[in-house]
Amino acid sequence: MVISMHAVVEVPWPGADRPPWPVADLAPGSWLVLGGGCSGAQAGTFVWALAGACGDGTPEEVIAGLVAEEALIVAGGLRVADSRTGAVVTPGCCAGLEDWRDWATVLDGGSPWLGHSPDPAVEVAGDVIRVWQDGGAGRRRSARVDIPRADLPVLLDGVQRDLAAFLEVLAGWSGAPALVRAVDDALRISGP
Fold this sequence. Notes:
Elements: E1 3-10, E2 31-33, H1 40-51, H2 59-68, E3 76-82, E4 88-89, E5 121-125, E6 128-132, E7 144-148, H3 152-174, H4 177-187
Antiparallel strand pairs: 1-2, 1-3, 3-4, 5-6, 6-7
């Protein structure tokens, strides 16, 4: 497929300490693609990103804290790419993966929150959904990916399958069914 869409999480910037569990050797601020092929260290990176400033303590304490949270949010969203043109659009600042299902509103004329700086945006032009890396003043100079409108449901189904497969990786890494349920609920992975 020329157009791809993947759930991504922003790799945290290390503070004074890294978490007390293995994490993937990825550049801070880069994007971790979630799916069934993720390693245990990548699952650890996801939990590190999810825990944020609350990530101090043993793995068991961090997991218990996450399970007790009222709402789980994680910096990220959906990354869209066009292998033909090489264009890639990533989530902007303050976007959260927990809002990934909002992409479906595009089919009804809505627009998902994609973050700011550089202000990614979505516009519908007939049968094409145009996704801009910078939907503001820099629009004409920024990367863009054109998604055929009919392909969006298929792409979103693929994202859901990838996230469901990642839950299995997370279950194996954490051994904590309560964490898996909390992540599933927060990211609205299961269900129609």
